[in-house]
Design a protein that fits this description.
Strand content: 25-35%
CATH superfamily: Gcn5-related N-acetyltransferase (GNAT)
Helix content: 25-40%
CATH topology: Aminopeptidase
Radius of gyration: 16 Å
Shape: globular
Number of domains: 1
CATH architecture: 3-Layer(aba) Sandwich
Distance between the termini: 33 Å
Number of strands: 8
Amino acid sequence: MTNFLVSPITLEGQLVRLEPLSLVHADGLAEAGSDPAIWRYMLYGNLSLPGAMEAWVRDILQRQGEGTDLPFAVIHKPSGRVAGATRYLEIRPAHRGLEIGGTWYGIEFQRTGVNTECKYLLLRHAFETLGCIRVQFKADANNERSLRGIERIGAQREGVLRNHMLLADGRRRDSAYYSILDSEWPAVRAHLEALLARD
């Protein structure tokens, strides 16, 4: 596929709806992100502070305007509430690849089917609509919960970039990288569909 056009779209499943991120979501995101524990491993710092979420949304929307990111608000359909956010980033049309990341959920939406369905919707769109040949993920190498979540969906661990990033509090972050290739997608899709049927 040669038409690699990553543009705002709504992706909908049984449990979640991924809507193009906008300032309309800022209050709901602030409510979902009110627990400081959510931000321990995140590059952005503590978005539970007053005014921080709106500033973050504006920054991410600016990145979207530059063509580097495509952010989504994650809507929990049963409650109608904003559960968190996720996005495509590191978008590389010439190489038909991108990253799924910047993902976070409110505490009450963690360890539910929300993350599994979000990843399923994003991966399906990336491989089946955009024609990606590679989708990558990265996480703080010390964030065991994120690492387990990435491994649970079937991504292959590729290695660790040491001292990869400086976090808002000055800590040095090592980043673990994972990927799924187009040749692996059919098996990963079947695996995710089985997980979703259980959840």
